[in-house]
# Entry
Amino acid sequence: MERNSASQTNGKTNGHGHLNRASMREKVKEAVIDAAAPAGAVAFITRPALDELVAEILAGCNRALAGQPALDAVARLHSGGKLRAGEVEAIEAVLDAVALRPQYFATIAEQAGALVEQRFDVAACRQDLALRATLVRLRDGLAAALQHADDAVLAVSERVRAPALAAYRVGVEKASRDPALRSAIAPAVTHYGESARARVHNRRAAERKAARTTK
# Structure
């Protein structure tokens, strides 16, 4: 267990007992690698430590997004915030122009049911662009991490499913002569039996639909 102890002793903290950002990124990477590693591999991080790290990451994400709006499906679909490639640079050029000749942009009329006079706040717009850049980094980083986590879930699931299915087939065969075994394996029989019936039902429905379309 040398690698495991090394990973625990090399974690750098920020002086308050919490992992700093660089150390946390390494821990996340190690955790995902460990989750997808083949059986028998030496763990980079223990299961309790991984559970704690996941809770810390989720709490950190919630803190990072605190105060930011969460859109519903309709608002998301019709949002005017879907910037095209190069549009950030275009907006920055507009802000530079406003800063160069502010007298031209003292007020801007915006259609919102009625014309409303509004100051063009260059500083606030620049702050929003900076915030957007940070949120984009968060979004893209989480997307990559979620994809890696999803890959790890598939790898771990495949690792446990193959021997479990082999044991299931043996268990079903032996259960007819062993009441205790039959009771223990009953939930699995129910699950896989329902799955098999659903597959048969779907296949027959597809065959009936195909037969109707060929007439």
About this structure: Residues 92 and 126 are 8 Å apart (CA to CA). Helices lie at 2-9, 21-36, 47-64, 73-78, 87-100, 122-175, 179-214.
